[in-house]
Protein backbone atom coordinates (compact mmCIF):
# COMPACT_ATOMS: atom_id res chain seq x y z
CA UNK A 1 0.00 0.00 0.00
CA UNK A 2 1.16 3.49 -0.82
CA UNK A 3 0.43 6.68 1.15
CA UNK A 4 2.20 9.99 1.42
CA UNK A 5 4.54 10.22 4.43
CA UNK A 6 2.48 13.16 5.75
CA UNK A 7 -0.64 10.97 5.71
CA UNK A 8 1.17 8.18 7.52
CA UNK A 9 2.42 10.55 10.22
CA UNK A 10 -1.15 11.73 10.78
CA UNK A 11 -1.86 8.20 11.96
CA UNK A 12 0.28 8.86 15.05
CA UNK A 13 -1.91 11.81 16.00
CA UNK A 14 -4.99 9.73 15.26
CA UNK A 15 -3.70 6.81 17.33
CA UNK A 16 -2.99 9.13 20.25
CA UNK A 17 -6.51 10.55 20.17
CA UNK A 18 -8.05 7.09 19.76
CA UNK A 19 -6.06 5.83 22.76
CA UNK A 20 -7.46 8.69 24.83
CA UNK A 21 -10.96 7.93 23.57
CA UNK A 22 -10.49 4.28 24.47
CA UNK A 23 -9.37 5.23 27.96
CA UNK A 24 -12.40 7.44 28.37
CA UNK A 25 -14.69 4.66 27.17
CA UNK A 26 -13.06 2.23 29.60
CA UNK A 27 -13.41 4.76 32.42
CA UNK A 28 -17.09 5.22 31.53
CA UNK A 29 -17.70 1.45 31.60
CA UNK A 30 -15.89 0.94 34.89
CA UNK A 31 -17.06 3.90 36.95
CA UNK A 32 -17.36 2.80 40.61
CA UNK A 33 -20.74 4.52 40.67
CA UNK A 34 -22.04 1.96 38.15
CA UNK A 35 -21.38 -0.92 40.53
CA UNK A 36 -22.79 1.14 43.40
CA UNK A 37 -25.99 1.92 41.49
CA UNK A 38 -26.35 -1.74 40.51
CA UNK A 39 -25.90 -2.97 44.08
CA UNK A 40 -28.26 -0.37 45.54
CA UNK A 41 -30.88 -1.12 42.87
CA UNK A 42 -30.69 -4.83 43.74
CA UNK A 43 -30.97 -3.97 47.43
CA UNK A 44 -34.08 -1.89 46.74
CA UNK A 45 -35.62 -4.78 44.82
CA UNK A 46 -34.91 -7.14 47.73
CA UNK A 47 -36.35 -4.64 50.21
CA UNK A 48 -39.51 -4.30 48.12
CA UNK A 49 -39.99 -8.07 48.27
CA UNK A 50 -39.25 -8.20 52.00
CA UNK A 51 -41.67 -5.34 52.71
CA UNK A 52 -44.44 -7.07 50.77
CA UNK A 53 -43.79 -10.28 52.70
CA UNK A 54 -43.83 -8.47 56.06
CA UNK A 55 -46.99 -6.52 55.21
CA UNK A 56 -48.69 -9.65 53.90
CA UNK A 57 -47.82 -11.50 57.11
CA UNK A 58 -49.10 -8.57 59.19
CA UNK A 59 -52.32 -8.50 57.17
CA UNK A 60 -52.84 -12.25 57.55
CA UNK A 61 -52.22 -11.99 61.28
CA UNK A 62 -54.65 -9.07 61.55
CA UNK A 63 -57.35 -11.29 60.05
CA UNK A 64 -56.37 -14.16 62.33
CA UNK A 65 -56.52 -11.80 65.31
CA UNK A 66 -59.95 -10.54 64.32
CA UNK A 67 -61.22 -14.12 64.03
CA UNK A 68 -59.68 -15.13 67.35
CA UNK A 69 -61.15 -12.05 69.06
CA UNK A 70 -64.53 -12.90 67.53
CA UNK A 71 -64.23 -16.42 68.93
CA UNK A 72 -63.38 -14.97 72.37
CA UNK A 73 -66.40 -12.69 72.20
CA UNK A 74 -68.67 -15.56 71.19
CA UNK A 75 -67.50 -17.64 74.17
CA UNK A 76 -67.82 -14.64 76.49
CA UNK A 77 -71.41 -14.12 75.34
CA UNK A 78 -72.22 -17.80 76.01
CA UNK A 79 -70.68 -17.48 79.47
CA UNK A 80 -72.74 -14.35 80.17
CA UNK A 81 -75.89 -16.07 78.96
CA UNK A 82 -75.29 -19.14 81.09
CA UNK A 83 -74.31 -17.04 84.07
CA UNK A 84 -77.58 -15.09 83.79
CA UNK A 85 -79.51 -18.35 83.71
CA UNK A 86 -77.60 -19.54 86.73
CA UNK A 87 -78.16 -16.27 88.60
CA UNK A 88 -81.84 -16.04 87.66
CA UNK A 89 -82.79 -19.10 89.71
CA UNK A 90 -84.65 -20.58 86.76
CA UNK A 91 -82.56 -23.75 86.90
CA UNK A 92 -83.53 -25.66 90.01
CA UNK A 93 -82.58 -29.23 89.21
CA UNK A 94 -79.30 -30.14 90.92
CA UNK A 95 -78.28 -32.08 87.85
CA UNK A 96 -79.03 -29.17 85.51
CA UNK A 97 -77.27 -26.77 87.88
CA UNK A 98 -74.19 -28.97 87.96
CA UNK A 99 -74.24 -29.29 84.18
CA UNK A 100 -74.62 -25.54 83.73
CA UNK A 101 -71.80 -24.79 86.17
CA UNK A 102 -69.61 -27.33 84.43
CA UNK A 103 -70.37 -25.74 81.07
CA UNK A 104 -69.50 -22.28 82.40
CA UNK A 105 -66.19 -23.57 83.77
CA UNK A 106 -65.42 -25.26 80.45
CA UNK A 107 -66.27 -22.07 78.56
CA UNK A 108 -64.07 -20.03 80.87
CA UNK A 109 -61.15 -22.37 80.17
CA UNK A 110 -61.92 -22.06 76.46
CA UNK A 111 -62.00 -18.27 76.78
CA UNK A 112 -58.63 -18.29 78.55
CA UNK A 113 -57.11 -20.47 75.83
CA UNK A 114 -58.51 -18.25 73.09
CA UNK A 115 -57.23 -15.11 74.82
CA UNK A 116 -53.75 -16.69 74.90
CA UNK A 117 -54.08 -17.28 71.16
CA UNK A 118 -55.10 -13.65 70.65
CA UNK A 119 -52.07 -12.44 72.64
CA UNK A 120 -49.73 -14.65 70.66
CA UNK A 121 -51.18 -13.43 67.35
CA UNK A 122 -50.93 -9.81 68.52
CA UNK A 123 -47.25 -10.27 69.37
CA UNK A 124 -46.54 -11.86 65.99
CA UNK A 125 -48.50 -9.12 64.22
CA UNK A 126 -46.62 -6.40 66.09
CA UNK A 127 -43.30 -8.05 65.16
CA UNK A 128 -44.32 -8.20 61.49
CA UNK A 129 -45.48 -4.57 61.52
CA UNK A 130 -42.24 -3.47 63.20
CA UNK A 131 -40.25 -5.42 60.64
CA UNK A 132 -42.17 -3.75 57.82
CA UNK A 133 -41.56 -0.32 59.38
CA UNK A 134 -37.83 -1.05 59.76
CA UNK A 135 -37.61 -2.22 56.16
CA UNK A 136 -39.41 0.90 54.93
CA UNK A 137 -36.98 3.08 56.87
CA UNK A 138 -34.09 1.23 55.32
CA UNK A 139 -35.71 1.61 51.91
CA UNK A 140 -35.76 5.38 52.36
CA UNK A 141 -32.05 5.38 53.19
CA UNK A 142 -31.17 3.11 50.26
CA UNK A 143 -33.31 5.22 47.92
CA UNK A 144 -31.43 8.36 49.02
CA UNK A 145 -28.08 6.59 48.56
CA UNK A 146 -29.14 5.39 45.12
CA UNK A 147 -30.21 8.88 44.10
CA UNK A 148 -26.83 10.23 45.23
CA UNK A 149 -24.95 7.52 43.35
CA UNK A 150 -26.98 8.17 40.20
CA UNK A 151 -26.25 11.88 40.42
CA UNK A 152 -22.53 11.21 40.79
CA UNK A 153 -22.67 8.71 37.93
CA UNK A 154 -24.47 11.18 35.67
CA UNK A 155 -21.99 13.93 36.55
CA UNK A 156 -19.10 11.62 35.69
CA UNK A 157 -20.83 10.62 32.44
CA UNK A 158 -21.25 14.29 31.52
CA UNK A 159 -17.60 15.01 32.22
CA UNK A 160 -16.37 11.98 30.26
CA UNK A 161 -18.75 12.60 27.36
CA UNK A 162 -17.63 16.22 27.20
CA UNK A 163 -13.99 15.19 27.00
CA UNK A 164 -14.79 12.56 24.37
CA UNK A 165 -16.73 15.06 22.29
CA UNK A 166 -13.78 17.46 22.35
CA UNK A 167 -11.42 14.67 21.29
CA UNK A 168 -13.71 13.61 18.44
CA UNK A 169 -13.81 17.24 17.27
CA UNK A 170 -10.00 17.16 17.08
CA UNK A 171 -10.09 13.74 15.41
CA UNK A 172 -12.32 14.67 12.48
CA UNK A 173 -9.86 17.00 10.66
CA UNK A 174 -7.07 14.47 11.15
CA UNK A 175 -9.19 11.72 9.59
CA UNK A 176 -10.07 14.05 6.72
CA UNK A 177 -6.39 14.26 5.82
CA UNK A 178 -5.91 10.47 5.56
CA UNK A 179 -6.73 8.46 2.45
CA UNK A 180 -9.63 6.03 2.59
CA UNK A 181 -7.51 2.92 1.96
CA UNK A 182 -4.94 3.77 4.64
CA UNK A 183 -7.69 4.72 7.09
CA UNK A 184 -9.52 1.46 6.43
CA UNK A 185 -6.35 -0.51 7.19
CA UNK A 186 -5.76 1.51 10.35
CA UNK A 187 -9.35 0.94 11.54
CA UNK A 188 -9.12 -2.78 10.83
CA UNK A 189 -5.86 -3.10 12.78
CA UNK A 190 -7.21 -0.98 15.61
CA UNK A 191 -10.23 -3.26 15.86
CA UNK A 192 -7.96 -6.31 15.96
CA UNK A 193 -5.22 -5.07 18.27
CA UNK A 194 -6.52 -1.91 19.91
CA UNK A 195 -3.81 0.22 18.27
CA UNK A 196 -3.73 0.64 14.50
CA UNK A 197 -0.41 2.44 14.08
CA UNK A 198 2.73 2.90 16.14
CA UNK A 199 5.97 4.83 15.86
CA UNK A 200 9.15 3.09 14.90
CA UNK A 201 11.61 4.54 17.41
CA UNK A 202 15.28 3.58 17.73
CA UNK A 203 14.59 0.38 15.83
CA UNK A 204 11.72 -0.65 18.13
CA UNK A 205 8.00 -0.89 17.43
CA UNK A 206 6.30 1.14 20.15
CA UNK A 207 3.10 -0.78 19.54
CA UNK A 208 4.36 -4.14 20.77
CA UNK A 209 7.70 -2.91 22.18
CA UNK A 210 9.58 -5.37 19.97
CA UNK A 211 13.08 -4.53 18.72
CA UNK A 212 13.11 -5.18 14.98
CA UNK A 213 15.71 -7.48 13.48
CA UNK A 214 18.50 -6.16 11.30
CA UNK A 215 16.82 -7.73 8.28
CA UNK A 216 13.52 -6.03 9.03
CA UNK A 217 15.20 -2.67 9.59
CA UNK A 218 17.13 -3.02 6.33
CA UNK A 219 13.88 -3.80 4.50
CA UNK A 220 12.28 -0.69 5.97
CA UNK A 221 15.30 1.43 5.05
CA UNK A 222 15.00 0.20 1.48
CA UNK A 223 11.26 0.93 1.33
CA UNK A 224 10.12 4.07 -0.48
CA UNK A 225 8.95 6.92 1.80
CA UNK A 226 5.37 6.43 0.63
CA UNK A 227 5.43 2.68 1.24
CA UNK A 228 3.24 1.66 4.17
CA UNK A 229 5.38 -0.66 6.29
CA UNK A 230 4.16 -3.04 8.99
CA UNK A 231 5.67 -4.53 12.12
CA UNK A 232 6.44 -8.18 11.46
CA UNK A 233 5.60 -9.01 15.07
CA UNK A 234 2.25 -7.27 15.72
CA UNK A 235 1.37 -6.28 12.10
CA UNK A 236 0.61 -2.69 13.11
CA UNK A 237 1.41 0.13 10.70
CA UNK A 238 4.89 1.44 11.48
CA UNK A 239 5.36 5.18 11.19
CA UNK A 240 8.87 6.30 10.31
CA UNK A 241 10.22 9.51 11.86
CA UNK A 242 13.70 10.99 12.35
CA UNK A 243 13.73 9.05 15.64
CA UNK A 244 13.29 5.68 13.94
CA UNK A 245 17.01 4.92 13.88
CA UNK A 246 17.10 4.04 10.22
UniProtKB/TrEMBL annotation:
Residues of the C4-type zinc ribbon domain: 204-238
Coiled-coil features, chain-numbered ranges: 37-64, 97-159
Entry-linked PANTHER family: PHOSPHOLIPASE C-BETA-2-RELATED, SCAVENGER RECEPTOR CLASS A MEMBER 3
Organism: Thermobispora bispora (strain ATCC 19993 / DSM 43833 / CBS 139.67 / JCM 10125 / KCTC 9307 / NBRC 14880 / R51)
Lineage, highest ranks first: Bacteria, Bacillati, Actinomycetota, Actinomycetes, Streptosporangiales
InterPro entries: CT398_CC_hairpin (IPR056003), Oxidative_Scav/Glycosyltrans (IPR052376), Zf-RING_7 (IPR003743)
Name used for this protein in its record: Uncharacterized protein
Lineage: superkingdom: Bacteria
Annotated ranges, domain CT398-like coiled coil hairpin: 14-194
Keywords: Coiled coil
